[in-house]
């Protein structure tokens, strides 16, 4: 299947969805503290998406029951909100998506509840920075795996981490998950050309141990086989008609992080 190309009007709708996702993630983040349950966090997200005129794209997705994914410690992605309480020292990953005007947004972050293990925090910082390196490498006219390569090389340069093999980024648009699949590792210069109108979700997932995972008996939660903790960060970005990128799920469109990496963002959505 061909990669969906969006026009400026469609990308404007995707920006609305992306901002609502980011605002929802910010609100969830503020509420992550010991004693709150993951289902309470889910309710906060659901209410905020509704308040913002959006609709969850997670809820009902292949039967998923949450508005967000809540993954704790050795759970890396796809954890289901439940009556589980957040505990001191937990490493919590939240993934969220929303639809506005038929267009999707998708983003995620990880955070550690006090007391913070500094080695865990370094892993989170490496994961987040690798996401920005990947986006910065997603240049109009370049190749898809330029991003994969940039993500992996940065992670490798920072220490010994497991990079999940079976999960990766994806195209996004009138559906949450579209072609192409985007690996978080591999050689540069392969895959389709990155073109104006493409929108891509970049989401590295790394662990302090193995890159091997299994899915729990709930059919969703992805955990490391060695119980090592992991991190997950995600943003959705697009290539605008001026050939420049814009991060749909970042408040500033990615301006601060990308300019630090020498990449100028588009002003067409500002
Ligand atoms: Mg996501
Ligand atoms: Mg995604």
Spell out the key features of this protein.
24% strand, binds magnesium ion, 5 helices, 4-stranded antiparallel sheet, single chain, 270 residues, Creatine Amidinohydrolase, alpha+beta, globular
Description:
The protein is of the alpha+beta class. The protein has one domain (8-259): Creatinase/methionine aminopeptidase superfamily (Creatine Amidinohydrolase), CATH 3.90.230.10. Helix content is 28%, strand content 24%. It has five helices and 15 strands. The strands form four sheets. The chain has a five-stranded antiparallel β-sheet with strand order 8-7-9-14-15. The longest helix has 24 residues, at 8-31. The radius of gyration is 17 Å and the shape is globular. The mean pLDDT is 98. Bound molecules: magnesium ion (2 copies). One magnesium ion binds next to strand 4 and strand 5. One magnesium ion (MG) binds at residues 106, 170, 201, 203, 234.
Write down the CATH topology: Creatine Amidinohydrolase
Uncertain stretches of 5 or more adjacent residues: none
SS summary, helix count: 5
The ordered string of helix (H) and strand (E) elements is HHEEEEEHHEEEEEEEEEEH
Count of individual beta strands: 15
Largest sheet: 5 strands, antiparallel
Shape-level CATH architecture: Alpha-Beta Complex
Spatial strand sequence of the major β-sheet: 8-7-9-14-15
CATH class: Alpha Beta
